[in-house]
Amino acid sequence: MLKGKSILSLMELNRSEIIKILDISAKLKEKRKRGKYPKLLKEKTLVSMFMKPSTRTRISFNEAMHELGGHCIDVTSSELQLGRGETIEDTARVISRYCDVIAARVFSHDHVIRLSSAASVPVINSLSDMYHPCQILADLLTIREKKGKFNGLKLAYVGDGNNVCNTLIIGCTQVGMHVNIACPKEYMPSQDAINFALKSTENNGGKIVFFDEPKEAVKDVDIIYTDTFISMGQEKEEEKRLKIFLPKYQVNRRLVEHAKSDFIFMHCLPAHRNQEVTDDVMDSINSVVFDQAENRLHVQKGLLCLLLLEESEIKI
Ligand code: CP
Ligand code: NVA
Predict the structure, then answer these.
(1) Which of 90, 245, 312, 313 is buried most deeply by CB count within 10 Å?
(2) pTM of the model
(3) Residue at 93 is within a domain
(4) Same domain, yes or no: 173 and 99
C-alpha cells in the first residue's frame, strides 16, 4: 500500500494509511519498551541530507535505522558536491544508486519535489519551508496516546502559519479532528494546505475554523499547539515578525485558562522559551512536548518499514 511512496507533505496519505503508520509505530514502541528491536530493515540504507540544522530529526532517523538493523548515512549539504553546485537531480540519481530511501531537509519545498522526481527510491521530506510530515505523524501518535481517539477532538494552533501549521491542518483533518487557527493575517497557513484540509473535512468529518483572537480559538479545546515565530531561514525578519506576534500570539498561562482543564500543550521544538510559549506552560503538567519529540523516533521507524517493505514482511 505504501511501499515505494515518497512522503513530501502528508497530502499523499489517506486516513487509513496514516492510521496504519501509527499502528506499526505504536507496536514498535511497545517492543522497544520491552528491549526488543525487530531487525526489519537489515541491509537497508537511509541517506539523510540536511541543508539546515537539526537535533531531533537527524538523531531520531539515525537511531531508527540503527534499531531496525539498517544503516543511516547522514550528511549536511556543505559536505556534498551539492554545496558546490552539483544539481539536485544529479545528486538524487547518484544517491539512489547507493541507498534504499532518502530523507532531505531543505529550504525551498521545490527542492524536495525535484529530488523525489529524479530519485529512483522513496524520498521523505524531513522539513521544507512548506511542510514537516514526520513531525505531524509523531504528533498524531502523541495525540492518540494522550486522548485515546481523534474524532471529536479540538486542536487550536496559535502563531505562525508555517510549515508545521500547514502540515498539522492536513494531518488533523485527515483523521477527523476539528482545527481552530489563530494566525496573524500576514502569516496565514498556505492556501494549498487550507484547500486540502477543507476537502478533507468533507470526507472525514471534523472542521477547520479561523479566528482573529487566540483567546477565542483556544476556548474549550483539547489541544493547544504553537511553533516558533521565526523559522529557519527567516532570521532576518525577526524584528518585523516579533512586532506582529508579540504579545498577542504568545501561549501563556492567561491564554491556556480558556482551554479544557485537561488540555495538552504541544510544540514541535525547538522552543524559543518566553517568546511563543512561556516556561509556565512549556513545563506544566499539560505539556507533552518531550513525548512528541520521543515519538519522532517511533513514527519514523513505522514509516520507514512501510515505505521499504510489503506489509506482510512487517512481522512485529
Ligand atoms: N522538530 C524538529 O524537526 O526538530 P529538529 O529541527 O531538531 O530536527
Ligand atoms: N517552523 C520551524 C520548525 C522547526 C522544526 C522551522 O522551520 O524552523
Answers:
(1) 245
(2) 0.98
(3) yes
(4) no
